[in-house]
């Protein structure tokens, strides 16, 4: 959530920056500032009311002592009237605060100055690419390979649940488990503390990290219990620190977690959804950091290096891109995506997003710390997929194919799988 004091002091800057995300914030900003003005006016009237009540209360005892009973009774009546007026003012004040908060959450985060202009993914900027992109024979797309070798059963998954819920079998199931353990071990080596999180969260958690109300239609909702299935472990991990005041000595907070992720992917039916490319349930290892504002962009570089390092260790050809204003998420200030090149599809597959949210999530969840000078400040939050499994598995199945029809397991996974090819 954009801090209210920034809207008060620099409304034009906020409007201008949000246009980079192709979001016209002018009406919402004006609405917030108007409500804020009325709230502050209401607060002043209420403060004056309380002050008058206190003044009269002090005089009543003195009037009784002086035998001025009639004046004292009049003063008591005036106090009762002020108390009734205060109730109305208190109700009005709460209503204006609610109005401000309900409107503030509709504003996306302001993009960092380095976010490029652009409307769609085609306008994203490639930063670099690494790996072997040569195609030495006719690589099969992973869904054809899996069908021939009975590795992933999409039809039975559809029978059990529906489209987008595949059934992984035998060595591909073990490959998934190997990848999860490898990613968690690498995160632990990098100083992340592992946590195991719930797969459902309440609406307060969804609002705090910005999935609600923006992505409500993309989340699975358990109506009877008013709970949401998590779209990513970022939501419960970051919400561990909701309404917390941390010490500088607590920082940086570094967590990793494995979880299943659930996404309705509403409106994606016209896109390429074959095989593992777009699922409703998938596995992912997430890394999250909570840091001081002055260090967050240095930490972003470290997290990008960590994700790139995982892909290099897996030996997958990949690239890193900087997301443009039209493709960056509602909550992010700056995002870098990592995409694996799948040779069977001749297609780039996104496998990770690494983002800095600056103080946007922290402001929504009231996550603060006391700095060295003892001043209370909002913290910065960052997260990254390290990594999301379906498209990594797709990349391995397509890029590690052999002319004999086998799939070679990346060497770094051999200790985890117990086999070198299948």
Write the layout of secondary structure elements.
Blueprint: H1 4-9, H2 11-18, H3 26-65, H4 69-104, E1 125-130, H5 142-149, E2 152-153, H6 154-160, E3 167-168, H7 170-189, E4 193-194, E5 200-201, H8 203-209, E6 221-222, E7 227-229, H9 234-239, E8 245-247, E9 253-262, E10 281-291, H10 296-314, E11 318-322, E12 334-342, E13 347-356, H11 360-365, E14 368-370, E15 376-378, E16 380-388, H12 389-399, H13 414-417
Parallel strand pairs: 4-9, 8-14
Antiparallel strand pairs: 1-11, 2-3, 5-7, 6-7, 9-10, 10-16, 11-12, 12-13, 13-16, 14-15
Helix pairs in contact: 3-4
Structure description:
The structure is a single chain. The protein is of the alpha+beta class and 422 residues long. The chain is built from 13 helices and 16 strands. The longest helix has 40 residues, at 26-65. The radius of gyration is 28 Å and the shape is elongated. The model has no long low-confidence stretch (mean pLDDT 94).
What is the structure about, briefly put?
The chain contains 13 helices and 16 strands.
What is the gyration radius calculated from CA atoms?
28 Å
Largest sheet: 8 strands, mixed
Helix content: 40-55%
Number of strands: 16
The ordered string of helix (H) and strand (E) elements is HHHHEHEHEHEEHEEHEEEHEEEHEEEHH
| Overall spatial form | elongated
Number of domains: 2
Distance between the termini: 49 Å
Placed side by side, the strands forming the largest sheet appear as 1-11-12-13-16-10-9-4
Poorly predicted segments? none
Structural class: alpha+beta
Under the CATH scheme, which class of the largest domain?
Answer: Alpha Beta
Mean pLDDT: 94
């Amino acid at each position: 959530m954009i801090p209210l004091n920034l809207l008060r002091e620099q409304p034009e800057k906020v409007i201008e920056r949000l246009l980079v995300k192709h979001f016209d914030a002018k009406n919402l900003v004006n609405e917030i500032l108007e409500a804020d003005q009325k709230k502050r006016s209401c607060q002043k009237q209420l403060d004056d009311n309380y002050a008058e009540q206190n003044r009269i209360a002090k005089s009543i005892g003195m009037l009784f002592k002086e035998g001025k009973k009639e004046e004292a009774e009049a003063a008591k009546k005036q106090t009762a009237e002020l108390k009734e007026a205060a109730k109305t003012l208190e109700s009005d004040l709460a209503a204006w605060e609610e109005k401000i908060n309900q409107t503030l959450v509709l504003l996306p985060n302001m993009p960092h100055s380095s976010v490029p202009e652009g409307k769609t993914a085609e306008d994203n900027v490639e930063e670099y690419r690494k790996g072997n992109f040569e195609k030495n024979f006719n690589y099969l797309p992973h869904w054809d390979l899996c069908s021939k070798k009975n590795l992933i059963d999409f039809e039975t998954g559809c029978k059990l649940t529906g489209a987008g819920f595949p059934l992984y079998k035998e060595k591909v199931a073990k490959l998934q488990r190997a990848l999860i353990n490898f990613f968690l071990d690498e995160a632990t080596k990098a100083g992340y503390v592992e946590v195991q999180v719930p797969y459902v969260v309440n609406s307060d958690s969804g609002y705090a990290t910005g999935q609600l109300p923006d992505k409500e239609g993309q989340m699975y909702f358990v109506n009877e219990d008013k709970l949401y299935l998590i779209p990513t472990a970022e939501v419960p991990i970051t919400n561990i620190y909701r309404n917390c005041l941390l010490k500088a000595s607590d920082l940086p907070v570094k967590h990793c977690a494995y979880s299943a992720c659930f996404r309705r992917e509403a409106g994606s039916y016209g896109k390429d959804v074959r095989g593992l490319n777009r699922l409703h349930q998938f596995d992912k290892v997430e890394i999250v950091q909570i840091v001081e504002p002055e260090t967050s962009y240095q930490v972003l570089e470290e997290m990008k290096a960590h994700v790139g390092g995982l892909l290099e260790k897996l030996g997958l050809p990949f690239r890193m891109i900087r997301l443009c204003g039209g493709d960056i998420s509602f909550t992010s200030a700056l995002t870098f995506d990592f995409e694996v090149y799948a040779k069977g599809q001749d297609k780039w597959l996104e496998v990770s997003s690494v983002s800095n949210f600056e103080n946007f999530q922290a402001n929504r969840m009231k996550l603060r710390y006391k700095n060295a000078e003892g001043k209370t400040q909002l913290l910065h939050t960052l997260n990254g997929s390290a990594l999301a499994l379906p498209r990594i598995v797709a990349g391995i199945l397509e890029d590690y194919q052999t002319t004999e029809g086998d799939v070679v397991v990346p060497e770094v996974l051999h200790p985890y799988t117990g086999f070198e090819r299948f």
